[in-house]
Structure formats: structure tokens, C-alpha cells
TrEMBL record:
SUPFAM superfamilies: FMN-linked oxidoreductases. This is NADH:flavin oxidoreductase / NADH oxidase family protein. Keywords: Flavoprotein, Oxidoreductase. It comes from Syntrophus gentianae. InterPro entries: Aldolase_TIM (IPR013785), NADH_flavin_oxidoreductase (IPR051799), OxRdtase_FMN_N (IPR001155). Residues 7-185 form the NADH:flavin oxidoreductase/NADH oxidase N-terminal domain. PANTHER family: BINDING OXIDOREDUCTASE, PUTATIVE (AFU_ORTHOLOGUE AFUA_2G08260)-RELATED (PTHR43656). Gene3D superfamilies: Aldolase class I (3.20.20.70).
Length: 202
């Protein structure tokens, strides 16, 4: 008797059925090209993860904006324009060929972004304590609205590329997580706190 009797049992997420309850989590490989396009090496890497037997295989985070303000790694994958869809489709295809569900992670790196720029974006100008983070610029309301639209369009592209599911990354200071705070009076942050049910707010 295995100590984890449900681990290898099939699982259900909505209408999707996973062959087991193991999920390969998003991992930044830096294998894509510097312009955000998927490389053959990245596709081979993702295929190897699917071949390993996980029920769900998640891509590395893909930044959703054209300026690269959400780009946090030199070799980070992009989903900012339709021209990236063909390469992303290849990843979804190789994952599915090995029986796993494919998930694409959308990741705007926020305070850790702007790797090719001289600044990063944050809800407010809070000094960065780590020297390799870029100086922050405060997001304007139109920029916040644009960031939301960028995520919407990125999700559309993920669907068109053939992925089974979409994951939004909102951890460790990435853009989404920086809006979940009680210490603000901004409309955007208050909305984020309310919708999160305070679950992510200490």
C-alpha cells in the first residue's frame, strides 16, 4: 500500500481529466531566444517533462507585454503578440503527444521585470533592496488597465495555441501579487483584495 494512494489516481479540473495528480510546475529555463521566441531546445525540454509522466505540464512563465516591462529573464518566453503563437503551439502539441494536459503560465514579473530596460513597474514607488532589481516606476491607471488587457490577450493566444489550461503567476513580488495589500487606498488594489477573499493578505 502506497502512503499516497491518490497521487497516481486520475484527477479532474472542470471538464479536464488528468491521468494523475502530479503537476510539473513552471520553471524558467532561459532556453527561449532573447526576443521571446520559442527555441528547439525549449521544446525538447518541455517534451521531456511530459514524457516523464506528470499529469499536467506547465510551461515557463511567458511575459504578456510588448515593451518587455514584464520580462524578468534574458531568455524568457513571450506571449505578447500573435506572432509567438506558432512556437507556443509546438509546445502544447508535444506535451499532448505524451498524454499530459498542457498549461501555459502568464507571468508579468513586475518589480523583478524590465530586465532589458532601465526600470521596472510597481503599484507604488517602493525602494528596491536588491541591487539587481531595476528602479521602480509607479503604474498609472491607464497602465494598469493596459496590463489587464495584456493578460486578456495573452490568455486568448494561449487558447489559440492549443493549451488545455492557463495559469496566472502572482507570487514573490511579480506584478499581480504587488496589488494584494491592505496598505493602500487605490481602486485596483482594493478590488484585488476583495476578489482574493483576503486569502493571500496577511
Amino acid at each position: 500500500m502506497t502512503p499516497y494512494p491518490h497521487l497516481f489516481a486520475s484527477g479532474r479540473i472542470g471538464k479536464l481529466v488528468s491521468r494523475n495528480r502530479i503537476k510539473y510546475a513552471a520553471t524558467e529555463t532561459n532556453f527561449p531566444y532573447a526576443d521571446g521566441f520559442v527555441s528547439d531546445r525549449e521544446i525538447a525540454y518541455m517534451e521531456a517533462q511530459a514524457r516523464g509522466g506528470a499529469g499536467i505540464v506547465t510551461t515557463q512563465g511567458a511575459y504578456p507585454d510588448r515593451k518587455g516591462e514584464g520580462k524578468g529573464f534574458r531568455g524568457m518566453m513571450s506571449i505578447a503578440e500573435d506572432r509567438f503563437i506558432p512556437g507556443l503551439s509546438r509546445i502544447a502539441e508535444v506535451i499532448g503527444q505524451h498524454g499530459a494536459l498542457s498549461a501555459l503560465q502568464i507571468l508579468h514579473c513586475g518589480r523583478e521585470g524590465g530586465v532589458d530596460l532601465d526600470y521596472c513597474l510597481m503599484p507604488s514607488v517602493v525602494p528596491q533592496r536588491l541591487s539587481y532589481f531595476k528602479p521602480p516606476r509607479e503604474l498609472t491607471v491607464p497602465q494598469i488597465q493596459q496590463a489587464i488587457e495584456d493578460h486578456v490577450q495573452a490568455a486568448r493566444r494561449a487558447v489559440e495555441a492549443g493549451f488545455d489550461m492557463i495559469e496566472l503567476s502572482g507570487i514573490v513580488g511579480y506584478l499581480i501579487s504587488t496589488f494584494v495589500s491592505r496598505y493602500t487606498t487605490s481602486e485596483a488594489t482594493n478590488s484585488a483584495v476583495k476578489r482574493s477573499g483576503n486569502a493571500a493578505v496577511s
